[in-house]
Amino acid sequence: MGKRGEPLEVRNAHFPSMVQIEAYGNGGFRFADMSHRGSLMCIPSGVYGWEPKSFEEITDEALEHVLAEADNIEVLLIGAGDELKPFAESRKAPFREKGIMVDSMSTGAAVRTYNVLLNEDRAVAAVFIAVENT
């Protein structure tokens, strides 16, 4: 419950800028002194809660927001969960057409790579499947 017994308002998770991921694991992420339970999408317009809970749930529809901001992205990192899972070459075509390189790796490796590229002011975007253990 919220203040004075009012129902707690749940909003779509969104942080309006690109920030470093401070920690991951236990089914979520920490960034900007906040925590988020579930998967994340980090694109130039900010950090968003993201629906997919497994690599297999990463559909073309789930990646539409990345393509919508393609003018400001050179690299898309896919954090596939606990282990490396390849992103099908055939699914990379729409990203290549917009000049975006796609690289899939475990969520931990993707978080570390994302933080480095963001620190270097590279035009990076990432989607991360939440993992339980780190």
From TrEMBL:
Pfam families linked to this entry: DUF498
Matching CDD domains: Mth938-like
Domain of life: Bacteria
Gene3D superfamilies noted in UniProt: MTH938-like (3.40.1230.10)
Name of the protein this chain belongs to: Uncharacterized protein
Organism: Pseudovibrio axinellae
